[in-house]
Specification:
The complex is a heterodimer of chains A (484) and B (385).
Chain A lengths: L3 H11 L4 E2 L2 H4 L16 E3 L4 H14 L2 E5 L15 E5 L6 E5 L4 E4 L5 H9 L3 E2 L12 H7 L6 H4 L6 E7 L5 E5 L10 H5 L8 E8 L1 E2 L3 E9 L2 H13 L6 E6 H11 L9 E9 L1 H17 L4 E4 L3 H12 L1 H6 L4 E4 L2 E2 L5 H15 L3 E6 L4 E8 L6 H18 L18 H4 L2 H14 L17 H5 L17
Chain B lengths: L9 H14 L3 E4 L15 E4 L6 E5 L4 E4 L5 H10 L2 E2 L8 H4 L8 H6 L7 H4 L2 H4 E8 L4 E5 L11 H5 L7 E9 L1 E2 L3 E8 L3 H12 L5 E7 L8 E8 L1 H14 L6 E3 L2 H13 L8 E6 L5 H9 L4 E5 L4 E6 L5 H7 L3 E6 L2 H6 L8 H14 L12
Parallel strand pairs in B: 1-2
Antiparallel strand pairs in B: 3-4, 4-8, 5-9, 6-7, 6-8, 10-12, 10-13, 11-12, 14-16, 14-17, 15-16
The chains are: A alpha+beta (484), B alpha+beta (385).
The complex binds flavin-adenine dinucleotide.
């Protein structure tokens, strides 16, 4: 804190017009999409190019100052949460599309370009960028890379990691490196694959080469209502068993369906315990064929509502409710807390039943939206932050849900990242040894632990301590096995 | 030579590795042994055979997930999947045929550790994209897990990416969880004859850039008096494939008359592109990776030194068969790509590393990463040095 003026002055020498150090303006950066956590940064710097990022990081490294990278600040896990003693490096001004190549089918963009802007830049020629997080109008490609973000289409088209071919990145000491390029496989270790999803802990990404795809000729959707979540879950399994991988397959429980219907009047059946929206894409003949097949499977699983979109307007209406599910649920209570676990799909009804018990136990309501194709569950916990103790209860409820996901063979986070939010739950999923293996990757990239400290790992061990090798000797555990 | 060690469980393997660390002795891990001839020959290393770590542990077709031990033969996994109408979408294949008459088998651990993928890689991703999680013994002599057993997971660093294609130099996998997908009900291959490489790459790019969901695209230059063949594969439900085929023929009309290959011709073509069959007799065999737009330039520059090539992944991968004197690595670098030496006489493999980091900075970073997983440097450290 005491060094704020000195640090700001130094940063201004690299980025003259892009340093923020007054309390009022710093407040705008105090949180990301996980608004329960707030902390204004020490200083914000908004570089315009890779050289400036490199100079800033090299200086911070020399001066022992921590750095937190930030894109659009839509992280739902507190990944971009500032630290009181760290410089926040905002990439929002690096927002140019640098190159588009339709032979190599890539777009090269700066990290501050929004997800949707990539698609817009290539749409004229019939292309798009496949990963489509619901936040796509706001979130940046740099943030997507850091979080390995997904979207409703990722069962068929993959997450960010399956759609990025290369990055330019500034290391913690200011060195600029390139990982990947426009080719498909790396020359050595897949360092690019490690950087994607590393939540800003390994470097600051300053350029991204993404794969672009031709947009499908047509898309249509079917709206299905089921009397139980079990029958809806079985229907999803039945569709996959028939060899169909839909472009999107979303489920909502009764609470989410009713909230969405009240909000946007999408025509959802209010009596259904579970609602499925399934979208297929490709040539019209394929869409027609698959939707017919899906309708048949749904009927066999006891669907009480089954409507195929007759036109683009109706397809969008089916989606409108799902897309508005978060704000719609937001109307049910003053605040909601969005969780993000993944489970094996076959355990869905069991998990939902258990969640209903937890809801009673914690005395808070919950509504569920679910990327049914890939098992990624988004329970929305309803609470009122102004009621003393409710936020704490919501967090405890959320933690219980994530423990449940892990217990049934799933994971803590499907797409929102660990950040600060799930940091302390990592030991639910990983042993000390597992985590140490991950942390040593951090050490290989950032040995001084300056980049985004306090995120992902419950305890950040010093690298020297982690590096020690305990050679075991003495009694051998399996004396019968031949030795060297 | 000492008898190879054969651990029968992960704990056994952990103890072997811990012993190797204590004795500062390198180990070479073998699954089926189909890729042993890649890399520097005659390395000082004790052999560890994973043959007893075999079998599918868990397979839930409707979850699209399969878990297996590393020495499970690829063929066993593929036939299990086929019985359930599924597949490994990255189209892994057996390397044995590249080297010896008696073909050792490929195992799933070796496939993933070597990042092996076939023609469908261009549309469906590689081994790295299908490894969801794993258990392994690192060079520290510790068992650890990473990733998960569900198709969507971002908890912690994505170590699956690093371990896929690491050739066992970070850790030895003892269990792998892979994403599996439905097998297409129907496939057709459309082919153009007589295109030169430049035009072939354009045709493949036009196909990949069309809305017809081309699954694979490859080019085989003229051989033995036969004209070149440029092929695009469509897969899926029959009605959809038929519609896309008609559209594709229409859209690629500029590249001449196209013909649908018979199933036998198609199988032959894809097998020979995958396994570099037409380059069987060449002195060296390289696998190069470039941006498709650079493929023709790379092919030309090796042709100037009597090298021949086969092009896969719509131009992003080249098999290059060349005389020993041809500097394929520099040519690939000049095309902003890179090349791996897959087959060569022992003398050459002693001199030329099979793979090489793209820049000193990346080399240093890789070295730090290997140090992190294998501080004593025992996991076959000299294979690529
Ligand atoms: C309404 C809403 C809906 C959402 N829907 C989805 C969804 O469907 N799917 C999904 O996956 N996510 C979703 N998210 C979460 C969020 O949008 C994504 O995680 C997104 O990728 C974050 O991008 P950002 O630019 O806002 O990054 P930020 O929030 O600014 O940062 C996120 C992380 O990335 C790091 N970072 C940012 N830029 C860089 C860089 N250039 N180099 C290195 N590190 C960097 C930060 O340090 C931080 O750790 C949603 C969020 C909201 C608010």
């Amino acid at each position: 804190m005491a060094r704020r003026a000195e640090i700001a002055a130094a940063l201004r020498s690299f980025v003259p017009d892009g340093v923020i150090d007054n309390e009022r303006e710093l407040k705008a950066y105090e949180s990301d999409g996980l608004t329960a956590y707030r902390q204004p940064p020490l200083v914000v710097v908004l570089p315009e190019n890779t050289r400036q990022v490199s100079e800033v990081l090299a200086w911070c490294r020399r001066e022992g100052v921590k750095v937190v990278p930030r894109g659009a600040g839509t992280s739902l896990s507190g990944g971009a949460l500032p630290l009181a003693d760290a410089v926040l490096v905002g990439l929002s001004r690096m927002n140019r599309v640098l190159d588009i190549d339709f032979v190599d089918r890539v777009a090269v963009v700066q990290p501050g370009v929004t997800n949707l802007a990539v698609t817009q830049a290539v749409a004229e020629r019939g292309f798009y960028y496949a990963p489509d997080p619901s936040s796509q109008i706001a979130c940046t490609i740099g943030g997507n890379v850091a979080e390995n973000s997904g979207g409703v289409h990722c069962l068929k088209y993959g997450l960010t990691t399956n759609n990025v071919l290369g990055v330019e990145m500034v290391m913690a000491d200011g060195e600029v490196i390139r990982l990947g390029g426009r080719h498909l496989e790396p020359e050595g270790l897949d360092l690019l694959g490690l950087v994607i999803g590393s939540e800003g802990l390994l470097g600051v990404v300053t350029e991204v080469t993404v794969r672009i795809l031709p947009a499908p000729e047509a898309a249509s959707a079917i709206l299905l209502g089921f009397p139980t979540t079990r029958s809806a879950g079985d229907c999803v399994a039945g569709i996959i068993a028939e060899g169909i991988i839909p472009a999107g397959m979303e489920m909502m429980d009764k609470a989410a369906t009713q909230a969405a219907e009240a909000f946007v009047h999408a025509g959802y059946p209010l009596d259904a315990e579970a609602l499925l929206i399934i979208e297929v894409d490709g040539p019209p003949v394929e869409c027609e064929l698959l939707l017919g097949e899906i309708a048949r499977i749904a009927a066999a699983h006891g669907a009480t509502t089954s409507r195929i979109s007759q036109n683009e307007e109706e397809r969008l209406r089916f989606w409108a409710g799902r897309k508005a599910a978060f704000p719609a649920v937001g109307r049910l209570a003053p605040d909601y807390y969005c969780m993000d676990g993944t489970i094996p799909r076959s355990r869905l009804s069991e998990v939902l039943e258990r969640m209903a018990e937890l809801s009673r136990h914690h005395g808070l309501g919950v509504a569920n939206v679910f990327h049914a194709g890939d098992g990624n569950l988004h329970p929305l916990i309803l609470y009122d932050a102004n009621q003393p103790g409710q936020l704490d209860r919501a967090e405890a409820f959320g933690a219980d849900i994530l423990r449940l996901c892990v217990a049934v063979g799933g994971v803590l986070t499907g797409e929102h990242g660990v950040g600060v939010e799930k940091r302390d739950l990592m030991p639910e999923m990983f042993t000390e040894i597992d985590l140490a293996h991950q942390q040593r990757v951090k050490c290989a990239f950032d040995p001084d632990l300056r980049l985004n400290p306090g995120k992902v790992f419950p305890r950040l061990h010093r690298c020297a301590e982690l590096g020690r090798l305990h050679v075991h000797g003495g009694a051998l555990p399996h004396p019968a096995i031949p030795r060297f | 030579m000492a008898t190879p060690l054969r651990p029968n469980c992960a704990e056994d393997l952990r103890d072997l590795v811990a012993d190797a660390v204590r004795d500062a002795r390198a180990i070479e891990v073998v699954g089926g042994g189909s890729k042993r001839a890649i890399g520097k020959p005659h390395r000082q290393a004790s052999l560890v055979e994973l043959g007893d770590l075999t079998g599918v542990i868990d397979y839930a077709p409707s979850e699209l997930v399969l878990t297996a031990r590393p020495a499970t033969p690829l063929a066993e996994i593929e036939s299990l999947l086929a019985r359930n109408g599924q597949m490994l979408a990255f189209e892994p294949w057996e390397h044995g045929c590249l080297f010896a008459a008696a073909t050792p088998i490929a195992t799933i651990g070796g496939i993933v550790a070597a990042g092996v993928a076939g023609p469908r890689r261009v549309s469906a991703g590689g081994a790295r994209d299908h490894l969801l999680g794993f258990e392994a013994v690192s060079g520290r002599g510790e068992i650890f897990r990473a990733g998960g057993k569900v198709v969507k997971n971002v908890a912690g660093f994505d170590l699956s990416k690093a371990i896929a294609g690491s050739w066992g130099q970070l850790a030895i996998m003892t269990e792998l969880t892979l994403k599996v997908l439905p097998r297409p009900k129907c496939a057709v291959t459309l082919a153009f004859e007589g295109l030169d490489i430049e035009r072939a790459v354009r045709a493949m790019a036009a196909g990949m850039g069309s809305r017809n969901a081309v699954a694979a695209a490859a080019h085989c230059p003229p051989t033995g008096g036969r004209p070149s063949l440029t092929a695009l594969r469509l897969e899926g439900f029959a009605e959809s494939v038929a519609a896309r085929l008609a559209a594709l023929i229409d859209e690629l009309a500029d590249f001449g008359a196209a013909r649908e290959l018979t199933p036998d011709e198609a199988a032959d073509f894809w097998r020979s592109v995958t396994t570099a069959a037409p380059l069987a007799g060449t002195e060296t065999l390289w696998r190069a990776q470039v941006a498709p737009s650079r493929a023709a330039a790379l092919a030309q520059s090796v042709a100037d030194e009597d090298g021949r090539c086969l092009i896969d992944w719509a131009g992003a991968a080249l098999w290059i068969g060349a005389p020993a004197a041809c500097d394929v690595r520099s040519a690939a670098l000049a095309a902003q790509g890179h090349a791996m030496l897959v087959r060569a006489p022992g003398e050459l493999r002693t001199r030329i590393p099979a793979r090489k980091a793209g820049s000193p900075a990346l080399g240093a970073l890789e070295a730090r990463l290997r140090q992190a997983f294998d501080p004593a440097g025992i996991l076959d450290p000299h294979r690529f040095s």
